[in-house]
């Protein structure tokens, strides 16, 4: 099959699945933008990956839930029941923690109780792979598995079938090296300045925050990353973002733009197609205005496309997100996280040792 080489690489290189391990594949019913008769939907892709994992003697389960969720929302309880250790959902009912866990209002103390339960289980999974239309990367569902060191996890929000013929065939050793270099630069930086199309400039603090390398290679317990991999990213300091940012399409990078004040997205300009969705999200979740993430793309096989999952990895681009950042060093927990790509940017990092142009007019300066 056309996609088998990339699936084999996914299991061997990206996830490092070993005989005897337990792999959980979570997928939703949201359709592909384009598909073929052999793999017409995400469920079929999950089943093919499970079949090939079984050939490696990897014990695999597939859990499915309806598509259409907002990114950052928890999956339904049936997914927890399928993936989590025996008795976990019953424990949620006994402790009255089901609703707080699903709506993200669970307290740190109660979250610690749940972590203790998961850590003590003898039938936990080893690997989580999520193939979904919307993102569950920044959820308690994922965090409880990785923060406890029980499992390693890879999420593919917005995954399209063509990724297994393109971006998932990247040189993962090069992607790993670039991503680690970008993450190290972000960790060292105390502040960042983004220059984008139309002369728009956005400034914010990074002081004390650690950059994270999303290398596409997820091979140790507790590790988490997106696939296709290929970025270094960080959570900016809340309340510090000031200025303007162009987030237009690659052929018109200055067409749409954002205004940030005191760390929050306060207005959207240029009438982008996602403006109404943002208005609705912000009305329901005011904290989702938070500038949540700065990421730097490092994957040479990533191309401009409708999938943010792939587009945010394009070598020489950056992306910024609004919403939740509690899963990677930030302080905002909200059921929404959405990335926006910045084409042809210049990213200048400032630290006590001086200035570094990590991205210069669309060119990554480290390798």
Characterization of the model:
- With 367 residues, the protein is of the alpha+beta class.
- It folds into two domains: 4-165, 3-Layer(aba) Sandwich (Rossmann fold), CATH 3.40.50; 170-364, no CATH class.
- Helices cover 26% and strands 27% of the residues.
- The protein has helices spanning 4-14, 42-55, 77-83, 88-94, 98-102, 108-120, 140-147, 172-188, 275-284, 308-311, and strands spanning 22-28, 59-65, 127-132, 152-157, 191-196, 200-205, 212-214, 224-226, 231-234, 242-246, 257-261, 264-269, 291-297, 318-323, 337-342, 346-351, 354-360, 363-364.
- The strands form three sheets. It has an eight-stranded antiparallel beta sheet, covered by helices on one side. A five-stranded parallel beta sheet has the order 2-1-3-4-8, sandwiched between helices.
- Strand 3, helix 7 and strand 4 form a beta-alpha-beta unit.
- The longest helix has 17 residues, at 172-188.
- The protein is globular.
- The chain starts with a helix and ends with a strand.
